[in-house]
Amino acid sequence: MVVVDTTVWIDYVHGLDTPQTNALDYELLNNRVVTGDLLMVEFLQGFRDEKDFEDTRRIMDSLIYCELHRPPQPGHSPQETTEPCPPADWNYLNRLSSDTNSSGCSR
């Protein structure tokens, strides 16, 4: 499993051909990409077009998701967690960012 930096996602959606975007494409095809709340908020804030935002949000929703921002539950360290990561909580992600992205696309 790999966590992909926001800069690679940006290059990927802009269609740039780099070793990093090629690796991301390969990992996406093999269902080995993990994302998290902070990455999703940072990445999705940059969309100016509602359709592009929603298309990308669907892709992000299809990935394995883990919360990176919330601390572990009391008495549990991250290493002790064996439960699968929950799906993205869009209400929580909205609270991490503003109510709209830079173009006014709603979350």
Structural description of this entry:
By secondary structure, this protein is mainly alpha-helical. The protein has one domain (2-96): 5'-nuclease (Rossmann fold). 43% of the residues lie in helices and 8% in strands. It contains five helices and three strands, in the order E-H-H-E-H-H-E-H. It has helices at residues 6-13, 19-29, 37-44, 50-61, 90-96; strands at 2-3, 33-36, 64-66. Strands 1-2-3 form a three-stranded parallel beta sheet. Helix 1 packs across helix 2 and helix 3 (37-44) packs across helix 5. The chain starts with a strand and ends in an 11-residue tail after the last helix. The model is unreliable at 99-107 (pLDDT under 50).
Average pLDDT, all residues: 74
CATH H level: which superfamily? Answer: 5'-nuclease
What percent of residues adopt helix (DSSP H or I)? 40-55%
Count the beta strands: 3
CATH third-tier fold name = Rossmann fold
- What CATH first level would be assigned? Alpha Beta
Query: What is the CATH architecture assignment?
Result: 3-Layer(aba) Sandwich
Largest sheet: 3 strands, parallel
